[in-house]
Amino acid sequence: INTVGLAIGMAAGFMILQYVHYEKNYDTFFENSENIYRLKQNRYNNGELSTEWAAGCAGVGPSMKQDIPEVRTLVKLTSSNTMLSYQQRYIKVPHAYYASEDFFKVFSIELLSGVDSAVLSKPYNAVLSESLAEKIFGNEDPLGKEVRLNDNWDFSITGVFADLPENTHM
């Protein structure tokens, strides 16, 4: 009984350590991750904190970049559930992001195709993860092809990036 209890305790301890290590390493795979910050917005009602979320008002980022010299680059991200279609095939994308053009300059995500300074340089450009590109296009080269977003807008594929690890906020 003592040996079994010790083994179960050690196994539980190692699982807890592994979980803590996983959680503490969120987004640390980005180069210069210690200098990448995420704005947080708090809402107070009657002087008490009522809501906290990782978001900011649209004007805060540009004002910070203008007024604080230490802010070198600003990236705006908005997440969305979306539906992409290509040749009458529809694919639900639960975590799509709309990003400003400096995204790949700040986040060191490996581009498998496309050029980081150009992939998001124009409106209606899209960059897909490797797994999503494969799901939509199979073995075809997706560059230059168009996907339809929510049956409303056409986006031109300008790049494909390597899939991100699971311990990321993106």
Which class of secondary structure composition applies to the elements? alpha+beta
Helix percentage: 25-40%
> Which residues form runs of ≥5 with pLDDT under 50?
none
H/E series? HEEHEEHEEHEE
Beta-strand percentage?
25-35%
Number of helices: 4
The average pLDDT value, as a whole number, equals 87
> How many strand elements?
8
Q: Compute the gyration radius: what is it? A: 21 Å
What profile does the largest beta sheet have? 6 strands, mixed
- N- to C-terminal distance: 45 Å
Shape by Cα distribution: globular
Molecular structure report:
25% of the residues lie in helices and 31% in strands. With 170 residues, it is α+β, with helices and mostly antiparallel strands. The strands form two sheets. Strands 3, 4, 5, 6, 7 and 8 form a six-stranded mixed beta sheet that branches. The longest helix has 23 residues, at 2-24. The radius of gyration is 21 Å and the shape is globular. It starts with a helix and ends in a 9-residue tail after the last strand.
